[in-house]
Amino acid sequence: MGNEAEKEPKTEGQALAEKLCFEIKNCWDTATGETLRAVQQFAEQYKTFLDQGKTERECIKQALDMLNKEGFTDIETLLRETGSLSPGAKVYQNIKGKSLIFAVIGTRPLSEGVNVVGAHVDSPRIDLKTNPLYEDTGFALFDTHYYGGIKHYQWTTIPLAMHGVVIRKDGEKQELCIGEDPGDPAFTITDLLPHLAREQMQKKASEFVDGEDLNILAGSRPYKDPKAKDRVKLNLLNLLHEKYGILEEDFSGAEFEFVPAYKSQDIGIDRSMIGGYGHDDRSCAYAALHAGLSFAVSPAPLKTVVGLLTDKEEIGSMGNTGAQSRIFENFIAYLCSKTLVPYSEIALRQCLGRSSMLSADVNAAYDPNYEGVYDKKTASYFGKGLVLSKYTGRGGKVGGSDANAEFCQKVQGILNKNNLRWQYGNLGKVDKGGGGTIAQFVANLGLDVLDCGIPVLSMHSPFEVISKIDLYTTYQGYIAFLREA
Question: Which are the contacts of 309, defined by CB distance < 8 A and separation ≥ 6?
Fold first, then answer.
């Protein structure tokens, strides 16, 4: 016998199926040694980003550091120096430290449109109320209001870290982070012991822990003066004042966020996955940021490349740092006003109407433990590449975005041309739930928008899981899209 048996010729049906059918393949099967090394390196860099960016402010701060290192300049600073934006110019706009837009100016006029990848950097968490600190039966506790869609019970009995920004009475801005560094104290939300939980265990999961009961355990040691009132609370206020200069009234307008205190780590004996807090949507945000940074070196791209990182997506993209605001439209207007002569409102509208965007957001990966809520034919799977979601929303596509056929085919063609593996992805069965992204708000400005991101397990939990190769493939997909003229 020869060294290798000859392959049997394909039957007519096999050849026809290969021509007509779409087979979603596993990315690991074709990954070479060089690619595997790149996947691992990118994953390690991302884990550092994730651990150092547990709030939207921290993510934006890291993004700004990366942009500055690659020669990007604040757009107002650059325009004061040059007065115009030429091809290859690298600019950004920092929106209140919570959102960010950056661009690399292309050689073609903005009247032909721009290519955008947009993500959000906020994640579900536990926030403090405006008058949060109180004492009860010898404990000091923080009263909370959760942020975004969470399962309340998942946030009990885990170590929590306190991240905050407060403007003190003297007007000074004070940042604090307690619970992340070795030796730091942590916080937690207690739960009822099983011996006394008979009634609790009879409730629906949504009623196990009421939102009003997500109170954070903060201290139990009283201040030394026995005549003082609420001595445990007073002791905590004293410690906070000694280290940070904070008064109780400063809590009223501060931003204090409680997030899981642990770091991200590899999951599985094969180390093929990453577990951590905030994959939704910092995994896509990191891939989008690095895709944009890849255009920082000359030559300038043909079309202007834009990266959009927003806040408040988990609560509807409201506010002046969310995608429903005019931050993106204003930034594009700024670019047009400095590159198009003469500038006009019509020129801005033409630019927006001829622009395209990938809404970089995660999708729900198929989980065999909960197969009843998924449609296997349209679910997204680990290891099979980036996920294209033609439409979002709930029920009858309510509250979502639905991309047109022409743009869907354009994106699929870009990915196919670059030999990048992609898959379909819908958020579960039609009447089992649903959700939205920033896509609909940007699409309202006239852009073609398609949701495109990474499949995630345990979404919105304190410990989500993604595949390393999906992260890397998505990053490559964003580059390919941004490069397209």
Answer: 59, 60, 63, 99, 100, 101, 118, 119, 120, 121, 285, 288, 289
**Residue with tokens 């930034």, as numbered in its chain:** 331
24/416 Cα distance (integer angstroms): 12
| Residue 279: per-residue pLDDT | 98
Beta-bridge mates of residue 358: 117, 450
One-character DSSP codes across 186-236: -BB-----GGG-HHHHTS-GGGSS-GGG-PEEEE-PPPS-TTSSSHHHHHH
**Tens-digit pLDDT profile for residues 235-272:** 999 999 999 999 999 999 999 999 999 999 999 999 99
Contact indicator for 312, 319 with CB cutoff of 8 Å:
yes
pTM confidence score:
0.94
Q: Taking residues 465-470, what's their average pLDDT?
A: 98
Count other Cβ atoms within 10 Å, centred on residue 477. Answer: 28
Report which of 104, 59, 108 is spatially closest to residue 78, judged by C-alpha positions: 104
Q: Which H or E element spans position 248?
A: none
**Structural domains for the chain:** 27-123+277-483 (3.40.630.10), 125-260 (2.30.250.10)
Note the pLDDT tens digit of each residue in 98-150.
Answer: 999 999 999 999 999 999 999 999 999 999 999 999 999 999 999 999 999 99
